[in-house]
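are you around this afternoon, could really use another pair of eyes. what follows is a protein written twice so to speak, once as letters and once as structure tokens for the fold. i want to understand how the tokens follow from the sequence so walk me through it. anything you notice is useful, everything is just below.
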Amino acid sequence: MAFPRTHRSGRTAHAGRRIDFSQKQKSAALPGKTASAPARGTRAAASTNTPEQADGASDFLFQHAVALAVSNARLEDKLDTEHPHEILVPLDYADECRVKTDAVRSFWQVHGLPAQMVHAIIPSPVPRGYRATSKRRVYVTRDSRLRFCMGYGAGREETLRSALEPESHNDVYCWLKKTLGSPAYRAVGRSLNFIVVRGGAARLTLILNFFHLDAAVMHKTKLLADHVRAELPQVAAMFTFLDETRSEFYLESRAAGAHPFKKLFGSEYLDLTAAGCKFLYPPSAFSQVNESILDAFLREAKLLLKPGPESTLIDLFSGYGLFAVALGDAPERVVGMDFNGPAIHAASGNALHNRPDADIEFVAAAVTPSSIENKLPPCPSELYGEDEEQPEGELFILDPPRNGVRPNVIAAIAKRSPARVLNIFCSADEVPGTLKAWKHNGYSPSAVRVFDMFPGSPNVETMVLLEKTKKKPAAAGRNGRKFSAKTNVRKNRPGRADSRNAAPPKSNRAAKKAARSHDEIRRHVRQKPE
């Protein structure tokens, strides 16, 4: 069976007992990998496949767990092996959900994770035609024709229509294929990296990603925009995007300091509604591809984190404020952080529109150990001794890119001693390594939710709630009394002399008020050499 190409190199393909592939399917599924025999961490069985934890567990990727579950369910003959990214589309959706649930459990078991925490996958209300963002890579063939393909990792087979995309998206690609192939727009087609369509079925935004955009091509593109407005009423806005580096990340330019977006017509923002809130976001901002499942996604996040009236919610990788705004009615204070300036600007507007009375702010900065230490407000553990009882304190949400967080970010968060952390994974393969890092820093999973964010494909979205499993021992003072070394040092710094004999605030609200009043002093002190 042909599964999408994995981005991890040097892995060996295996999924329990051997599954017969045709030679074409082998190369489509796992280029450069060996599929002739099971690797370590699996075992063969006469009638069923059973995962087995072993030293080679790191070689067991989630796509292998899906292959194992499909084989156990005897559904191999129903797969769409010609389209690896849509391989599960022909399955009955109830069967697909059962296969993915079994795959997650076996994946967790092989990696030594608490598989008993994994409940049935939360299904998508719209299992087909759901994608709110789609793309086509544009290639020029040897005979000078244009070919629209799914992009990196999916080969160069032409794909104009996809079962996972709305018909309105598919209609745009078919129209553009015909139009860009004409002599009038040939220069436009030959200069394209990607064509990107974003939005729901009725209001779409069309983005043409160019690697070359001179005056002549721009003139033709403006004529094309007039043609689009006349022929495609579902397209409400159109942009050009310049990426001379031809990055595989189709809305990311690697040119430093570049401002690659240019509007041709329509609104500068896309919109969606989730959890009773209306969000606007720029075309460069990340947004979940399956908008139909967002209500359940946000509801489960709130149930797991349980934000209270005296808690502070820290939303890392906050984007345009989906979690910060949707959950912003419960905590006392919300702080979001993301490196994308336009998305942060949109997040502030979304917060003001949906939660005008809430204390929600956003910080434009990359999520790094340094920014967590210096850009976020003081945490309760800096105002209370570690041996003293603290109020509810901080709650964290992390929804990072597919490849996870940067090194030492987890340690920087754990240093703040949050009450609960909700780590979200759009790649199941990142779960084992990340949970190992959390365990090393004193946190372990207490609840798991798995969402079918990507129906029809062998991918899932995973939510893991983490809570503290151990408490760092407090240091002993000269008189034998325990104290927090961190708190003691801060009290004796310049500008904090008045707090030497002051008792810690008795409520979390008072703690936050004190934290805000000393925020400027804190930054001033950090700038001075020790």
